[in-house]
Write a structure and sequence with these properties.
This protein is mainly α. It folds into two domains: 2-265, no CATH class; 280-324, no CATH class. The protein is 68% helix and 2% strand. The protein has 15 helices and two strands. Strands 1-2 form a two-stranded antiparallel sheet. The relative contact order is 0.13.
Length: 342
C-alpha cells in the first residue's frame, strides 16, 4: 500500500499540473520562489483513496475517504479563494468571526466548517467496536471528531517551511503502520515520501489542501485505534498545542531546539545569501565630507541652498588649508634667551 500511495501521488501531481487551471495554483513561498500548490490535491487524492483501500472494512474505509477528501477539498477552496484581495485581511479564527459579524463568509470559515463536518461524519462512520451505549457512543464520536479536525488543523500549522508537514506526517505515520490501524496510514506515508523531494526542492507546496488532508487521515488512524479515554487524551494534547501556537511560534521553537532544527532542515535547499553592502552615509554632511576628500565634482548638481553653502565653505576651507604655508613654531622662552645672548 505504501508503493501504491507513492505511485498515486506522482500520477495525481502530473494530472493536476497539466490542467488548464494549473496557473491558479502558483504561489510565492517564504523565500520569494514561485511554487505550485498542486502538491496539495495530489496528496489528498492519493492518500485518501489508498487509506480507504487499506482500511480493512467498509465503514473505516468510508471514514478515511470522507475525512481526507473533504479536508482536501475545502482546503483547496481556501487556497484559491483565500488568495483574493478581499479575503487576505481575514486571517485566523478571530478574523473569520469578525468577518462573519460583518455579514461576510470567508473561505477560511468555509474550510473550518467543512473540515469539522467531515470529521464528524468520519467519526460516526468508524465502527463501535466496544459496544458502548448511546451516551458513550455519542461521547466517542464527539471526541473522535475533535481529534480528526484538530489533527488536520495542527498539521496545517506546521506547514510553514518546505517539507516540514510531510516530515511530520511520515514521522507520525510510520509507527502507526505497526498497529492494527496500520493499513490506514500506509498509503498516506507512501504519498508523503514520494512528494517530499519536490516539497524540499521548493517546486511544490501542500497548502491547506494537502496539510489538512494528511492531518485528518492521521487523525482517523489514531481515532480508529482508541476508545473514549484515548481520544480524550489525544484531544487534550492537540488542543494544548493549538492554543500554544497562538502564543508561541512553532518555527522559533524548532530553530531553538538542535534535534528538531536538524530534522527540519534536512534535505532543504540552502538559504540564499545576499552580499552584505556596507551602509554609506547620505545627506549634506556626507556631501561635505566627500568634497573635502575630493570625491565629488567642484559643482555638485541639484543641491539645496543650505547644502550648497556648506559645500562651498568646505571647498574654500580645504583650498586655504592646502595653499597656506606651514606655520613656523613659536620659540620657547629658553630658545628666545639664547637668541638674545647671541
Amino acid at each position: 500500500m505504501i508503493g501504491l500511495g507513492a505511485y498515486g501521488a506522482r500520477a495525481a501531481l502530473r494530472t493536476v499540473n497539466t490542467r488548464p487551471q494549473a496557473g491558479q495554483l502558483e504561489r510565492t513561498n517564504f523565500r520569494g520562489r514561485t511554487v505550485t500548490l498542486a502538491g496539495g490535491p495530489a496528496l489528498a487524492i492519493s492518500a485518501s483513496l489508498t487509506s480507504a483501500l487499506g482500511a480493512g472494512d467498509a465503514r473505516t474505509g468510508a471514514a478515511a475517504a470522507t475525512a481526507g477528501l473533504s479536508a482536501g477539498a475545502v482546503g483547496l477552496y481556501d487556497d484559491i479563494v483565500g488568495a483574493r484581495p478581499d479575503q487576505k485581511g481575514d486571517k485566523g479564527f478571530r478574523g473569520h468571526l469578525r468577518a462573519l459579524r460583518e455579514g461576510r463568509v470567508t473561505s477560511g470559515l468555509v474550510k473550518i466548517a467543512g473540515v469539522g463536518a467531515g470529521a464528524l461524519v468520519a467519526a460516526a462512520l468508524l465502527p463501535n467496536r466496544r459496544g458502548r451505549g448511546r451516551v458513550g457512543r455519542l461521547a466517542e464520536v464527539a471526541l473522535g471528531a475533535g481529534v480528526i479536525a484538530g489533527s488536520a488543523n495542527l498539521m496545517n500549522l506546521l506547514d510553514l517551511r518546505p517539507g516540514r508537514a510531510l516530515k511530520a506526517g511520515i514521522l507520525l505515520g510510520v509507527p502507526l503502520t505497526a498497529t492494527r490501524s496500520g493499513g490506514l496510514v500506509a498509503g498516506p506515508v507512501g504519498a508523503s515520501v514520494s512528494l517530499l523531494p519536490d516539497d524540499l526542492g521548493e517546486n511544490i507546496m501542500l497548502g491547506d489542501s494537502g496539510a489538512n488532508s494528511l492531518g485528518a487521515l492521521l487523525g482517523v488512524a489514531a481515532t480508529a485505534r482508541t476508545g473514549l479515554f484515548g481520544r480524550a487524551v489525544l484531544l487534550t494534547g492537540i488542543g494544548a498545542l493549538t492554543l500554544a501556537s497562538e502564543k508561541v511560534s512553532f518555527t522559533k521553537v524548532i530553530e531553538r531546539t538542535p534535534v528538531l532544527r536538524d530534522i527540519d532542515a534536512f534535505g532543504r535547499l540552502p538559504a540564499d545569501r545576499k552580499p552584505v553592502v556596507a551602509a554609506q552615509p547620505t545627506g549634506p554632511a556626507a556631501i561635505v565630507a566627500a568634497v573635502v576628500e575630493q570625491q565629488v565634482p567642484a559643482e555638485p548638481p541639484e543641491l539645496d541652498d543650505a547644502t550648497g553653502i556648506a559645500v562651498a565653505a568646505a571647498k574654500d576651507g580645504a583650498t586655504e588649508q592646502a595653499a597656506a604655508p606651514a606655520a613656523k613654531p613659536k620659540p620657547t622662552r629658553a630658545r628666545a634667551a639664547r637668541n638674545t645672548a647671541k
